[in-house]
Structure formats: C-alpha cells, structure tokens
Amino acid sequence: MRKLPNFVALSEKKIRRAVEFLKRDVGLEGRYIVQRPVLLSYSLERRLLPRHCLLKVLRTKGLLNSELDYYYTAALSEKKFVNKFVHPYEDHIAGLADAYASGCSEERNGVASLLSLQTEMDGVKVYAGKSC
C-alpha cells in the first residue's frame, strides 16, 4: 500500500490480467511484481504489451542482446522509451515506429505484426484480441 496508495482503486479484473501477463508472458516471479506494484497500474494494452512485444522483436532480430530489468523498461516515460528502443532501430526494421505507435493506440496488430517478419514463434498469447 505504501508503494502504490491507489492500489485499492484498481479493479480485480485489471490486477488479475496484469499479473497473468507479467508472470506467464514476461516471466516475472510473483515476488518481483509485489515489490513493484506500480506495474499493475500501467495499461496492459497501451503500455505493457506493446513494450514487451517491441523488446521481443528486437531480441528476436538480434538487435537487443542485453537483459533489461522489466520494471526499468515499463517505468520509462513514453518519450524516453521511444528514444531508447524505437528510434535507434528504425533503420534495421522497416515500420517499427509506426507499428509501435499503433500498438500503443490500441489499433489492430501493432508491434505484434512485426513478429510475422520472423519465422513462426511458439507460445503466442492473446490479451484483449492482441498478441505478441
């Protein structure tokens, strides 16, 4: 409660969906999430999922080799995230900026569409009609 006083205002459904995504798709442990409850307050569709998909695309393409702290990438302001993870790779992946922008605005496909550029991936998850 001390780290996120408005936690009680979050719906049970929002918390459940966020925890499921963070544990199953991102691979975070429950303890990690509990220590960073602000992750639960971020929009799954407009922030967590598009960023996760974008980073997954960069790793898959071999452009991002380092392991990043998930909280660090989720907590970055939109401007800083785009400057660090979108703009530097636009020349390597055609349509990256547009795909990320459409993913953040809840348009169909978004960054997930960039995964079609690679060979098929196992374990695709769907959240509110979106996948990555």
TrEMBL record:
Signal peptide (UniProt feature, chain positions): none
Alphabetized GO MF terms: nucleic acid binding
GO biological process: DNA-templated transcription termination
Domain of life: Eukaryota
Keywords (A to Z) from UniProt: Transcription, Transcription regulation, Transcription termination, Transit peptide
Stored SMART domains: Mterf
PANTHER family: CGI-12 PROTEIN-RELATED (PTHR13068), OS06G0224500 PROTEIN (PTHR13068:SF83)
Family to which the UniProt record says this protein belongs: Belongs to the mTERF family.
Protein name: Uncharacterized protein
UniProt organism field: Oryza sativa subsp. indica
Organism taxonomic ancestry: Eukaryota, Viridiplantae, Streptophyta, Embryophyta, Tracheophyta
